[in-house]
Write a structure and sequence with these properties.
Blueprint lengths: L4 E3 L1 E2 L4 H10 L2 E7 L6 E6 H8 L8 E6 L2 E12 L6 E8 L5 E11 L5 H4 L3 E4 L3 E7 L7 E4 L8 E3 L10 E2 L6 E6 L8 H13 L1
Parallel strand pairs: 1-5, 3-7, 8-11
Antiparallel strand pairs: 2-4, 3-4, 5-6, 6-7, 8-10, 9-14, 10-13, 12-14
Amino acid sequence: MAEIVLNVEVREQTGTGGARATRRSGMVPGVLYGGAQDPVAIAVKSNEFRKALYTGKLLGHLVTLKYGKETQPVIAKAIDMHPVTDEPWHFDLYRVDEHQQIKIEVPVHFSNQEESPGLKRGGSLNVAHHTVTVSCHADSIPEEIVVDLTGKDIGDNIRVSDLKLPAKVEAAIDGDVVVASIAAAKVTTGSTEDEAAAAAEGGEA
C-alpha cells in the first residue's frame, strides 16, 4: 500500500479565483483526473501537503487519497511551486488501480564515480537523461534507477538497455537511447589573450 495519505476536500470554487480563495484558507488547490470519472477540484491543507512533499515520496509515487471514509490510490504527476516563495501552489493527481500497469518517469542516479577510469583521467560525465520512462505496476514504482560507473572509461556510453531495472519493471523507451556517456576532457591550446598578444607582437616586428 502507499505510504503517504492525502486527506482532501472537494473544492466548490474553481478557476483562478477559486484557487486563490483556497490558498487564502491555508490549503493547496489541486485536480483529480483519470479513470472513467470526470475531473474533480480538490484541496489539501498546506502543512499536510508540505509534509508529504518533503518526504520525497509524493511526486511520481503511489499515494492514498482519502476523502471522508473513502480512499483511492492515485499517482501525483505534477506539482507546481510558487516561483518566489517556493511553496506548493497547485497539484495534479491521477486515479489508478494499485496493480494497474502504468508508464512513469523515474529519476536516474549515478554511483561509484571514483571507480571510473575515464573520470579519474579527467573525463566528464555527460548526462543526457536525468529520468527514464518505465512501465510497471502502480504499486511497484522504483524510487530510482542507479547506474554503476565502475570500470567506465572515456568513450563509453550507458544506454537504456544497460540499465539494471527491478523485477517486473521494463523500460518504456528504445533500448538504444543513450542515458549518459564519459567524455574526454576538453583540451585548450592557449587563451584568447595569449593569441591576441602574440598577434600584437607580430605586428610590431
